[in-house]
């Protein structure tokens, strides 16, 4: 892992959100089981088994939980790049496929495994653009793509960044 203090700070903040010390209850549920595979300044790769708690009434991954996950990952990625918390000012998610939260097999039930990749695509001083892709592990099928514009600000605290 490369990137210095900004990377350490961003990963520390992410672990605070996952453990419920920062943020809201929805974020804790939506990020349950998220693992960092690779992290460097402005780029991160995650491994995630979608938990049962984020399913909708039909058993699919809730779009609200997925959007919350994308927003938090966008904040963490920009934090690793700029060493500051940046609120989302424009948020666009394209959903390409759905995911049943539980895969039922003859022998066992297991959650669906996805890979998430996030990178800062543009840095315009006080504005940064982040692209996040969620893909099914194994076949690489694109599930969703989030595009976020983040604004540099010192007026926000860690707990105020996501309003989803």
UniProtKB/TrEMBL annotation:
<dbReference type="InterPro" id="IPR039298">
    <property type="entry name" value="ACOT13"/>
</dbReference>
<dbReference type="GO" id="GO:0047617">
    <property type="term" value="F:fatty acyl-CoA hydrolase activity"/>
</dbReference>
<protein>
    <submittedName>
        <fullName>Thioesterase superfamily</fullName>
    </submittedName>
</protein>
<dbReference type="InterPro" id="IPR029069">
    <property type="entry name" value="HotDog_dom_sf"/>
</dbReference>
């Amino acid at each position: 892992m490369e990137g210095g203090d900004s990377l350490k700070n961003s990963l520390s903040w992410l672990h605070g959100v996952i453990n419920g010390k920062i943020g809201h209850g929805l974020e804790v549920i939506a990020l349950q089981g998220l693992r960092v595979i690779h992290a460097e300044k402005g780029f991160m790769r995650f491994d995630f088994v979608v938990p049962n708690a984020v399913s909708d009434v039909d058993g699919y991954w809730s779009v609200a939980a997925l959007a919350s996950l994308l927003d938090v990952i966008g904040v963490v990625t920009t934090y690793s790049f700029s060493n500051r918390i940046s609120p989302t000012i424009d948020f666009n998610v394209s959903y390409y496929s759905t995911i049943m939260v539980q895969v039922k097999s003859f022998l066992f039930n297991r959650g669906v495994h996805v890979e998430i990749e996030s990178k800062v695509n543009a840095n315009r001083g006080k504005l940064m653009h982040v692209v996040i892709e969620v893909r099914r592990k194994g076949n690489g099928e694109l599930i969703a793509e989030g595009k976020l514009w983040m604004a540099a600000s010192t007026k926000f605290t860690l707990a105020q960044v996501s309003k989803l």
